[in-house]
């Protein structure tokens, strides 16, 4: 039986476990991923099952973690590393941008780096400063990286399996607030691969484009809109790079109206890119400019104020209302 | 080995002036601080402990989001501030609440971060205490900058920069020590080696003979002290501050202590260590030890002990009352502080939120 | 007489010199900025004039440079630091994102950081790998930073003076290939401040939106278009954050057509933001979707191939031709 | 001071087996390498020097974009590779062209980066030489990763990781030493201290007694050698490689040498140092010194000298001819190598460029 009910954290754990069982060269390392099992328990039990040589704690230094992972990937391993929170991935930024992203290109394809950088990201968990950043835009802007973000338990499992099998480096953004979301999934049936977006809900009136933590919010908004008689289609990007222009543009063309929903600050972000590229491609199908519901251009707020930063059902519905339904 | 090495390498054993049983020991280089200092220090330890435990209790009651306690490390916390003058600066980490409060910062303002109403709640300039740093070791560089600027201005400022054993692995630790040494900046780098970085024990953090041995690679003298002996810490840190003030450049001090509780309330230490490992450290408690010494020396009696406890109770009460008040930070603040003059974009976004909230209320 | 003929590097040098003369707390430090005067000679002669205490070489560590600058700014100084090339600013990324950008906000405005991070950036100089990155999008996406890029000699002088006087941290992007461009400027007449875009050339048919190194290319393209009878307006952003929506949108509304020209890779970049926000604001004035001429989504090419990456006059003109001049 | 410190701290003076006048000296710990090794080394030094100077000439002729020469540092370059076996890895910086070529990589492929037709021109797996690293010290971490992976696979691999004096200031240097020490990885960190980082002299880079003193802070043994004495370098590096191979963990070696030329052809060293400072170093030239020793020992005569020169000439000729050929890298390559399978976006962009180029040609 491959049907199991898992939280997203458990699904990620299962994916790591299955990947490590399937391939001896898969290693998992980072801060507190060993005995503790990670601060979110995503690596729970891996050291017990696979031993210290396969899943281990490192010294506390993120550039060191990513830098040594590069070397291991150069020498036959498939390292999976964890940045404890994505804001603690910044010390590794040079290694990511100047090496992880560029190694294959620099060496004319001779040195591939099959490695995964796992990053718990985004907010909604009442975390204090530096614990709720959404840094995917930095990576998405960096040519040579592949950037994915699961929004469902099944995708957490399958995208991570695919990421580990992927021949090139993947930045794997894990929406922290979904870690405890449970779902029954079928481990026997693969989800679509990296690079493919998925329509999570059909709807003819407008399209919501979301990824990671905002997908469930978008679905909730669509539910609420349906109650009011407006049918919203919801696209889950899943993969930010590569971007699935085909699925996204087809969806937008079907509805002629769209709202991008992302948690990160909007300025010069993935959400800007979605608006820009979809507009470039679908301009004449658009009845209104594509709207964005994103975080404000501020540092992530302290816990008592965080609700104001998060895209909410109401804010999404307001944006949809704004899509010039009357002749303008 | 030459004199350079003798000057830069730490003592063979951590400096300790009062042992686990409260007995004073002579030391070739360091002397026991004056009695009044130790009695005052005792009261501060008691208050620090109370603050730690009260804050932990308030987490359980949902009044704080999280609290990384320095329970058991209070001697380090208190010593770090007792050796400073008003003109000096303190650069604390998230675990150094007690040090901040010892420095005179309001406890409620100090806990703003961990309560979750704002990122940092006190005015750093008021008591010369930098905002608590969460990104590990980054604050050490700020400390060097403050110290260097002070020198350029001709000010008599020493900067006490705190970091954990785990934090020493970060590149910024290295860069801070190196910049300070090359600039001859008056910084005392004070490592609280509590043997753990969350779940990771020191042996997985470093293979160095001691963390104080890191100094010589920068030309910085390293010294180590028993982190649960307030007397030894005061002597060692005091001497380091003195040398830095005298123009001898940066100093590196490692205090050997232990994190007897979990990393924070959210952590489960049983996943990575045995109680058996913790037990002996409870015996080495810094308050017990100083109490025993002071009592033996006739410097502490039940009256003084009660007075210290009651002062600590007041702090705890102040915390309880202060943190029971619900705070309602104004959402408009989200946009106010990024820039001296908000950008047009932020003004627009602030208006959007204000409008949304007005509609919510309507 | 305040009229002088200067290269951009000289104008920057003059700005530093004048700022240091005007204010004792202004310091300049970084790698090789002392005796050598910087690898681009922007700091030439400053140590000689102001002494080692005001302009000095640091150890070779960028996080160290930015991190100590933060401390100095906290303690009464106005540090100006140089990242030798913008790609060597990545080691300082954590300091920039987690502290430079956040300090003022974190402390409720109590701690301002009046500091400038100078970054020689972009390509067109035949530099080998890591010497021609365009990293402005990383900074522009980070709330709390101010990001400017001069395109003229006069702006090099005035924007740098303004940046140094600015109460908050400024990331100052210096287009390397313009360092040697000369112009006669009047040091007595100030250019517009930070936050203001400028129309560099009027034209009624379409708007080119550029900043930094692409401004001269856009002007050249406008010149060429004029020869063919098409009048292109050219907007020089000057300031990426804050963004001058007013000037840019007014310009686009006047022409109804626009092309964004930027050297950085396009994906999730400043150019995406420009397209997105201008489209959001000017949708019904647009006769065609806004086009982008940007670098490809690849690492900056080796010298022998770099011309393919750089926005060229031809590429801009092609994009303008694409703006659906016929009814579609 | 204890045995730990004696084990980890470097010798009081840099190890030197042949002095500036070509005289051999006994050393308590290290022995002169065998005669054949030194004679072979001599030929490699001559070839390395020729390569350096030919490449510099080719820059002047516009055939290379830039060349950071190791002129005067050839003993370090050659020693670093002579002590390695085929199963070992080399991690070079931008200045280590001679080391790469000594390792057997084709000189034209090696110069691809500096010629500007691609970023890295050789297959790193062929001779186990990593791409030259420009971002300073970053490669040290990759080296540790390669070494650790080799141990996991049970391979007998030692990794030689090169870095400059300036590079030791970067955080990645610190993290690499620490990870290697904690993991006990077989890496030899080899610092070529040529006293300058572009214009910045060592005194502004560090206040450490020596760069080899940095080892002890990680529990890594540090040693230093005269960087212009091939014999001493071979002995010290050879021993370090031996210890790493024997499972003794990482090793840190500092060679003290000097950058007698400018940083690159684009640099103007007269802005920051006097010729008077350079002059004595020209006397300490590594080739002169070895030549004097070998000649004195009857191991080198005019015939052998001529043979070495002529082999070097061949390399120079190979370079000249190879670099005179114009290369026309295919623009399509710009999109081919980022990913094993190009993204739809890159396919679109490649088509755009192909179309543009087709129209240009039409
Ligand atoms: C750059 C960075 N990486 C990771 C973290 C997550 N983190 C918070 S505390 C901690 C352990 C720190 O250990 P140590 O320095 O020994 O201090 P202690 O908690 O023991 O006081 C970690 C890994 C962080 N805050 N910053
Ligand atoms: C991270 C980074 N910062 C800055 C530079 C620019 N840079 C190139 S070489 C150099 C000096 C390096 O000195 P050193 O490490 O002593 O090596 P050497 O050139 O003497 O061989 C600098 C600052 C760089 N390449 N990488
Ligand atoms: Mg600790
Ligand atoms: Mg050097």
Architecture per CATH nomenclature, i.e. the level-2 architecture of the largest domain in chain A: 3-Layer(aba) Sandwich
The separation of the N and C termini of chain B measures 78 Å
Strand content of chain A: 15-25%
Output the CATH topology of the largest domain in chain B.
Answer: Rossmann fold
Q: What's the rounded overall pLDDT mean of chain B?
A: 97
Class by alpha and beta content of chain B: alpha/beta
Range of helix content of chain A:
25-40%
Associated small molecules:
thiamine diphosphate, magnesium ion
| CATH topology descriptor of the largest domain in chain A | Rossmann fold
Care to count the β-strands of chain B? 7
Q: Sheet bearing the most strands of chain A, described? A: 7 strands, mixed
In the predicted model, the low-confidence regions of chain B spanning at least 5 consecutive residues are none
CATH structural class of the largest domain in chain B: Alpha Beta
Structural class by secondary-structure content of chain A: alpha/beta
Sketch the topology of chain B as an H/E string, one letter per element: HHHEHHHHEHEEEHEHEHHHHH
Rg on CA atoms of chain A, Å: 20 Å
Strand content of chain B: 5-15%
């Amino acid at each position: 039986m491959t049907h199991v009910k898992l939280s997203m954290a458990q699904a990620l754990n299962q994916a790591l476990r299955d990947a490590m069982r399937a391939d001896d060269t898969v290693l998992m390392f980072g801060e507190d991923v060993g005995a503790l099992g990670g601060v979110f328990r995503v690596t729970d039990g891996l050291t017990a099952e696979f031993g210290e040589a396969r899943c281990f704690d490192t010294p506390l230094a993120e550039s060191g973690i990513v830098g040594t992972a590069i070397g291991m990937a150069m020498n036959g391993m498939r390292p999976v590393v964890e940045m404890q929170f994505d804001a603690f991935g910044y010390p590794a930024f040079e290694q990511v941008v100047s090496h992880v992203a560029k190694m294959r290109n620099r060496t004319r394809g001779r040195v591939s780096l099959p490695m995964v950088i796992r990053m718990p990201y985004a907010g909604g968990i009442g975390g204090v400063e530096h614990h709720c950043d959404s840094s995917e835009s930095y990576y998405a802007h960096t040519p040579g990286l592949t950037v994915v973000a699961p929004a469902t338990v099944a995708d957490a499992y399958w995208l991570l399996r695919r990421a580990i099998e992927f021949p090139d480096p993947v930045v794997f953004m894990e929406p922290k607030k979904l870690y405890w979301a449970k779902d029954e999934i079928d481990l026997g049936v693969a989800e679509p691969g990296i690079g493919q977006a998925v329509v999570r809900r059909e709807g003819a009136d407008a399209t919501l484009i979301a990824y990671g933590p905002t997908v469930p919010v978008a679905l909730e908004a669509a539910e609420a809109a349906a109650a009011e008689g407006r049918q919203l289609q919801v696209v889950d990007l899943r993969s930010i790079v590569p971007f699935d222009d085909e699925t996204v543009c087809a969806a937008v063309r079907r509805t002629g109206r769209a709202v991008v929903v992302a948690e990160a600050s909007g300025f010069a972000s993935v959400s800007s890119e979605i608006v820009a590229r979809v507009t470039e491609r679908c301009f004449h199908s658009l009845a209104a400019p594509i709207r964005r519901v994103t975080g404000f251009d501020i540092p992530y707020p302290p816990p008592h104020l965080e609700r104001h930063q998060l895209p909410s059902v109401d804010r999404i519905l307001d944006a949809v209302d704004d899509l010039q339904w009357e002749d303008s | 080995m030459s004199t350079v090495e003798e000057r830069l390498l730490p003592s063979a054993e951590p400096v300790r002036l009062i042992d686990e049983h409260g007995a004073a020991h002579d030391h070739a280089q360091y002397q026991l601080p004056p009695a009044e200092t130790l009695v005052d220090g005792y009261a501060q330890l008691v208050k620090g402990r109370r603050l730690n435990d009260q804050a932990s209790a308030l987490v359980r009651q949902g009044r704080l989001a999280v609290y990384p306690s320095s329970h058991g490390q209070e001697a380090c916390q208190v010593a770090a501030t007792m050796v400073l003058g008003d003109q000096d600066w303190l650069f604390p980490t998230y675990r150094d609440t007690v040090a901040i409060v010892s420095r005179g910062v309001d406890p409620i303002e100090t806990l703003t971060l961990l309560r979750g109403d704002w990122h940092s709640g006190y005015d750093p300039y008021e008591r010369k205490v930098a905002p608590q740093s969460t990104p590990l070791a980054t604050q050490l560089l700020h400390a060097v900058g403050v110290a260097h600027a002070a020198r350029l201005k001709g000010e008599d400022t020493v900067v006490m920069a705190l970091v954990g054993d785990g934090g020493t692995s970060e590149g910024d630790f290295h860069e801070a020590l190196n910049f300070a040494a090359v600039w001859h900046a008056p910084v005392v780098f004070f490592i609280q080696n509590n043997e753990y970085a969350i779940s990771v024990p020191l042996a997985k953090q470093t293979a160095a003979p001691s963390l104080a041995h890191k100094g010589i690679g920068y030309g910085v003298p390293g010294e180590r002290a028993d982190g649960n002996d307030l007397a030894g810490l005061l002597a060692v840190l005091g001497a380091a501050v003195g040398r830095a003030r005298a123009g001898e450049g940066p100093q590196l001090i490692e205090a050997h202590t232990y994190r007897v509780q979990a990393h924070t309330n959210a952590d489960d230490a049983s996943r990575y260590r045995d109680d058996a490992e913790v037990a002996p450290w409870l015996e080495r408690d810094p308050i017990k030890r100083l109490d025993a010494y002071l009592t033996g020396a006739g410097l502490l009696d039940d009256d003084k002990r009660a007075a210290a406890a009651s002062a600590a109770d007041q702090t705890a009460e102040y915390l309880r009352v202060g943190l029971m008040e619900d705070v309602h930070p104004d959402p408009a603040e989200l946009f106010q502080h990024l820039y001296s003059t908000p950008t047009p974009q932020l003004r627009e976004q602030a208006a959007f939120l204000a409008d949304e909230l007005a509609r919510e209320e309507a």
